[in-house]
C-alpha cells in the first residue's frame, strides 16, 4: 500500500471511519477516472493524487464526522460537479440512497460512468437546475440530508437546497472560510424557507491545515409554495 492510501486510511480511522479493501479500490478507481476525464472536460483543478485524496475525498467525508450517516437513509447532493461530496459518502456508506443534481449534462455523463465503473447502486443522477428539480413532487421536502460543497453564498444556497430537505432534515453547506458574514446575510432566506441554523462545525484539513466549515441547517417546516423561484431568479435577486 502506498503512502497516500495509508495516510487516508489512518486519518479516517482517527474519525471512527473504517474502510474495507473494496472501498479503497473504489476510491482509487474514482481517482483514475477523475484524472482521465479531466483531460477532456473541466472537472477539477486538483489532479495530484495525494491532493485529490485530501482535498476532495477526505474533505467530502468530513460530513460524516459530525452527522451519524448510519441513520441517514437519503442524501441529495446539489450542484455536485465531479461528485463531491455525494460519491465519496456513497462509497463509505453504501446504504445511502443518493440523488445528485447538476446542471451540466457532461458532468452527469461522467458521474454515470463513475457509478458504473465503481459498481455503485442506489444512485439517481439528475441533469437539471436545482430550482426546477425541487418543484417536482418526488424531490420536494423529501431528503434526510441535503449537501452542497463550495457552490455559492448561503443566502442563495438555501433557496437551492432547503426545498429538497424534509421537515426536521438537515441541509449541510460545506464551506472553506468562516461563514459568519454569509450567515448574517442568510437570515431572511432561513426564515422564508422554514429553517433554522443548528450549528457550525469548524476544522482544518490535515496536512495542509486549510480551514473548513460545515453549516448545519435544520428544516422546521414544509417549503412555502412560492419557493424556489423560477430558474435564474434566486441568483439575480437573492433573499437578503
What's the N-to-C terminus distance? 50 Å
The geometry reads as globular
The gyration radius over C-alpha positions equals 17 Å
Summed over residues and divided by their number, the pLDDT gives a mean of: 96
| Structural class by sheet pairing and helices | alpha/beta
Arrangement of strands in the largest sheet: 3-2-1-4-5-7-6
Uncertain residue segments: none
The count of DSSP E runs of length 2 or more, i.e. the number of strands, is: 7
Strand count, sense and barrel status of the largest sheet are:
7 strands, mixed
Describe the secondary-structure layout.
Blueprint: H1 3-14, H2 21-38, H3 49-61, H4 63-66, E1 74-78, H5 86-92, E2 97-102, H6 105-118, E3 123-127, H7 130-133, E4 143-149, H8 154-161, E5 165-175, H9 180-185, H10 187-192, E6 195-204, E7 211-219, H11 233-236
Parallel strand pairs: 1-2, 1-4, 2-3, 4-5
Antiparallel strand pairs: 5-7, 6-7
Helix pairs in contact: 1-3, 2-6, 3-5
Architecture overview:
With about 240 residues, the chain is α/β, with parallel strands linked by helices. The chain has helices spanning about 5-15, 20-40, 50-60, 65, 85-90, 105-120, 130-135, 155-160, 180-185, 185-190, 235; strands at about 75-80, 95-100, 125, 145-150, 165-175, 195-205, 210-220. It has a seven-stranded mixed β-sheet with strand order 3-2-1-4-5-7-6, sandwiched between helices. α8 links the parallel β4 and β5. α2 runs antiparallel to α6 (about 105-120) and α3 crosses α5. The chain is globular, with a radius of gyration of 17 Å.
Amino acid at each position: 500500500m502506498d503512502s497516500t492510501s495509508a495516510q487516508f486510511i489512518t486519518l479516517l480511522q482517527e474519525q471512527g471511519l473504517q474502510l474495507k479493501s473494496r472501498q479503497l479500490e473504489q476510491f482509487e478507481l474514482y481517482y483514475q477516472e477523475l484524472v482521465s476525464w479531466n483531460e477532456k472536460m473541466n472537472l477539477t483543478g486538483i489532479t495530484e493524487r495525494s491532493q485529490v485524496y485530501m482535498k476532495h475525498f477526505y474533505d467530502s467525508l468530513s460530513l460524516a464526522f459530525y452527522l451519524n450517516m448510519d441513520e441517514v437513509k437519503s442524501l441529495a447532493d446539489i450542484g455536485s460537479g465531479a461528485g463531491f461530496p455525494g460519491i465519496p459518502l456513497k462509497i463509505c456508506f453504501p446504504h445511502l440512497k443518493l440523488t445528485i443534481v447538476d446542471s451540466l449534462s457532461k458532468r452527469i455523463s461522467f458521474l454515470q460512468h463513475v457509478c458504473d465503473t465503481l459498481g455503485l447502486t442506489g444512485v439517481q443522477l439528475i441533469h437539471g437546475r436545482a430550482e426546477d428539480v425541487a418543484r417536482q413532487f418526488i424531490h420536494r421536502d423529501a431528503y434526510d440530508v441535503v449537501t452542497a460543497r463550495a457552490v455559492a453564498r448561503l443566502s442563495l444556497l438555501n433557496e437551492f437546497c432547503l426545498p429538497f430537505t424534509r421537515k426536521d432534515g438537515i441541509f449541510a453547506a460545506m464551506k472553506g472560510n468562516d461563514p459568519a458574514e454569509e450567515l448574517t446575510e442568510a437570515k431572511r432566506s432561513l426564515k422564508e424557507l422554514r429553517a433554522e441554523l443548528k450549528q457550525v462545525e469548524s476544522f482544518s484539513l490535515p496536512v495542509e491545515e486549510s480551514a473548513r466549515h460545515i453549516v448545519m441547517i435544520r428544516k422546521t417546516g414544509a417549503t412555502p409554495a412560492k419557493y424556489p423561484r423560477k430558474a435564474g431568479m434566486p441568483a439575480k435577486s437573492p433573499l437578503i
